[in-house]
Amino acid sequence: MPSPTAWERIGRFFRERFPVEKLSYDELVRKKTVPIHRRSWGYYTGGLVLLFLLIQVVTGIFLLFYYEPTATDASSSIEYLTHYVPNGEFLRNIHAWSASFMIGFLLLHFLTTLAMKSFERPRELTWLAGVLLLFLTFTFGFTGYLLPWNQIAVNATKVVLQSLVQASTFLPGGLARLPLDVRLALQGGESVGQPTLSRFFAIHVVLLPVLLAIILGFHLLSVQLLGMSQGVDTPAKRYERFFPSYILKDLSVWTVAFFVLFFLALSIPFASFLPYPLTEPFYALGPTPAGIKPEWYFYFVYYPLELLPFPVILAGMTVIMIGLFLIPWMFRKSSRRALTALAVAGALYLLIITIFGHDIYQLVRGGS
Predict the structure, then answer these.
(1) CA separation (Å) from 265 to 21, 153, 227, 286?
(2) Which CATH class is domain 32-282+294-367?
(3) How far apart are CA 123 and CA 131, in angstroms?
(4) Which of 144, 113, 134 is nearest to 212 (CA)?
(5) Structure-model confidence comparison of residues 233 and 354, the more confident one
(6) Is residue 240 within 8 Å of residue 128, measured between CB atoms?
(7) What letter would DSSP give residue 2?
């Protein structure tokens, strides 16, 4: 028998990882099952990310009714929404809280799928799509941060864009031009201004949602076609029907999560975590207020940047970002116990740097 050609191997690769023959009611509903084991709770994290994403979409559409994407009116339009539109502050709060919940559960989903080795064959493409979704979500957070056009938003964005200039000094040859071109494309000029806001707005409400819909659609369809991963080293001894058993449990979790979000948005304004004058409208001629920092979900890189040399962080982040895409091949032979230890270490780092990052910074800087 002749050996398969390159095209035949490629076709076999994609057919195994995207079995379209399972696109039927019987396979996706009647026959589909979910493993039951000690880590089964991890399966619900992905659904929670989807719930908070849907809330983001719905509330974001309503916010667009009032938001003015101009440097002169952006801040005042948000103030009008907050103080004069019925339930406007609640709408803004639920959008902000759901963004944080979405990113928090996305990180948890990433760590649980890593621990359960959900990237192993034939789920490599599912993992790659998930990594792209992780990067897209953080880009949503970055671009959305600027839109209120207040002191903390504009000044924090300036810091991030300036870091691209800093990165260019450590890259060789023609690569040194790449961060400068990215900065100019995002900034739209020599300084942060109306072109920057217009571009961030377009990226946030047009470009990113289109990319998200495409990649998320592939990710969700891939999960449905391939089913839930085994999750533990020994095969699960029990299974439950995907429909209606698992779906009803998933909806129950959604209901609890929604009521928690609803209560927080109703009782705790998200902006209350930012002291005066960080939430004041941006004034280009005024001094930069103290306390400028990114949202909490960027602390994992913000505080190391404050404490370690920039080249070290640049090299480390580059290696980590490339490594995330290579995980299905780097850890192909690793046990789930080893991957669990890695995931726990990652979770501890994120928790410690997020909760105690400022204290660690003060301790190190105070002692230096």
Answers:
(1) 44, 21, 35, 32
(2) mainly alpha
(3) 13
(4) 134
(5) 354
(6) no
(7) P
**Torsion over CA of 351, 270, 94 and 212, rounded to 10 degrees?**
-50
Triad 286, 289, 294: Cα angle to 5°: 125
Inter-axis angle of helices 88-115 and 43-64, nearest 10: 150
Query: Can you say whether residue 4 is alpha, beta or left, with left for phi > 0 and alpha for psi between -120 and 50 degrees?
Result: beta
Which DSSP letter does residue 238 get?
E
87/63 Cα distance (integer angstroms)? 11
Mean predicted lDDT score pLDDT of the chain: 93
- 113: closest CA among 331, 358, 360? 331
Return d(Cα 180, Cα 84) in angstroms, integer: 42
Q: Give the whole-angstrom CA distance, residue 205 versus residue 216.
A: 16
pTM of the model: 0.95
What is the DSSP code string of 274-331? S-TTTTSBP-TTSPPPTT----GGGHHHHHHHHHS-HHHHHHHHHHHHHHHHHHHHHT
Rg of the chain on CA atoms, in Å: 23
**One-letter identity of residue 218:** F
Distance of alpha carbon 222 from alpha carbon 127, whole angstroms: 10
Decide: 98 and 56 in contact? Cβ < 8 Å: yes
Measured between alpha carbons, how far is 69 from 147 in angstroms, rounded to an integer? 7
The predicted-structure confidence for 275-288, as pLDDT tens digits, reads as follows: 888 989 998 888 88
Local structure of 257: helix, strand or coil = helix
Token pair for 96:
């902000």
What is the per-residue pLDDT across 243-298, written as a single tens digit (0 to 9) for each? 999 999 999 999 999 999 999 999 999 888 888 889 899 988 888 888 888 999 99
Instruction: Give the whole-angstrom CA distance, residue 117 versus residue 137.
Output: 22
Residue 65: both structure tokens together: 């009714």
Q: Which ranges in the chain belong to alpha helices (H)?
A: 6-17, 25, 43-64, 74-84, 88-115, 124-146, 151-168, 177-187, 194-202, 208-226, 247-267, 299-307, 310-330, 336-367
